[in-house]
Amino acid sequence: MSISRRRGLIATVTLVAAALSIAPATADTTSVYTAPATLPAGQNGDVIKSQPSNYPGAKSTRIQYLSRDNKNKPVAVSGTVLVPSNPWTGPGERPIVAYAPFTFGMGAQCAPSKTLAGEGARDMVSGFQATFVNALLGKGFAVAQTDYIGPWVEGSGDHPYVMRLSEAHTVLDVIRAAQRLPGTGLPANGPVGIAGYSEGGSAAAAAAELAATYAPELKVKGVYSGAPPADKAVLAKSLDGGMYVAFLGYALIGINQAYPEAKLMDLANPAGVQLFQQAKQTCTLPAVFQFMYKQSRTLTKNGQPVASFLAQPPFDAIVAENRIGTIKPAMPTMVQHSPLDDVIPVAVGKQMAKDWCAKGANVQWKDLVSFSPILSHALGMQSAAGEAAAWLTTVFNGQAGSGNCGRF
């Protein structure tokens, strides 16, 4: 990309961000972001704390609930349960859809349960989160939104970004929490679905794989996965040195949080350590601008790029453990990805879908419409929101179909 084109692209994104951004609110003291000194004994998905929140057109409640990290250790997680104001007019009981947010950042101010309520650091990205939530609420679904594990709940450590096990656990457990939350009118054993895009696409896909063993009582009728970063080995190469290299940095923070025994930071030079600490405080859009076009080889002690380390022990085993596509989902799934995606190569999402097909899963693959290769990943989210809501409607109507394996 030429320098003039880069400058033009940055200027365009900056103008859009400025038009949609809202100044951060005052410091948040909401109790769901403070974990108890000792986590209560209980079941995965139990509600620890709750309090009314704000969201137009829905009864909104912020929650703190029990879940598990990738080492199966109990942890407190925050999120939101939203019930549309309009009555459910579909068949059976009102469904609950777990919304797995896409990349929102690493800082405590970035949590979607804050930005959806008009707090924290709101910008274009948080506006996109609301687009997805609104599409689901518009179909009459209740929405159970997880923040995943992260520093928004004090003492929970860094966000284990795109780490398969912890994100699947938090997505499945927020459904349980919504079912158990008093005063919502939601069924305790009704139909549920899962939807997410980008980071949320991989979290939704991971939840699809683990639902049968981790949460077998949930009646998961369908899972929508948009643009999933299912293979971190591919992304370590494709993101490095590009506009979205911040997402690679986020993934390294995630590995360091989830697998401290790997001693990832031992590989970093002083510049790498500094960048690591800076990235932990950012939300998505500032991180993209701050770190774009960084070469990871300039941040390691021996000058090798991150991808070379991830191909060696112990990181190769970590990458393998976090690859999605190795377990057959027990429910119908839809996977969408733009052929023009400028962040996550479409081949990554398509390979995950093909891997599921090879295991006999019911998979519907569909290209996600995108009209430009520039910002196609971000703008594709808006199309994905409507696609997810429409497909889940057919699922809850008992019309999921048999998929199109072998035809993509």
Helix content: 25-40%
- CATH superfamily heading of the largest domain: Alpha/Beta hydrolase fold, catalytic domain
Residues in β-strands, percent: 15-25%
Question: What's the number of extended β-strand segments?
Answer: 9
The first-to-last residue Cα distance is 31 Å
Shape, per Cα inertia axes: globular
Q: Helical region count?
A: 13
What is the total number of structural domains? 2
- Mean of residue pLDDT? 92
CATH class (first level) name of the largest domain: Alpha Beta
| Spatial arrangement of strands, main beta sheet | 1-2-3-5-4-6-7-8-9
The structure class reads alpha/beta
Keywords: Signal
Signal peptide: 1-27
InterPro entries: AB_hydrolase_fold, Lipase_secreted, TAT_signal
GO molecular function, one term: triacylglycerol lipase activity
How would you describe this structure to a colleague?
With about 400 residues, the chain is an alpha/beta fold. The protein has 2 domains: about 280 residues, Rossmann fold; about 90 residues, 434 Repressor (Amino-terminal Domain) (Orthogonal Bundle), CATH 1.10.260.130. The chain has 13 helices and 9 strands. The protein is globular, with a radius of gyration of 20 Å. This is Lipase.
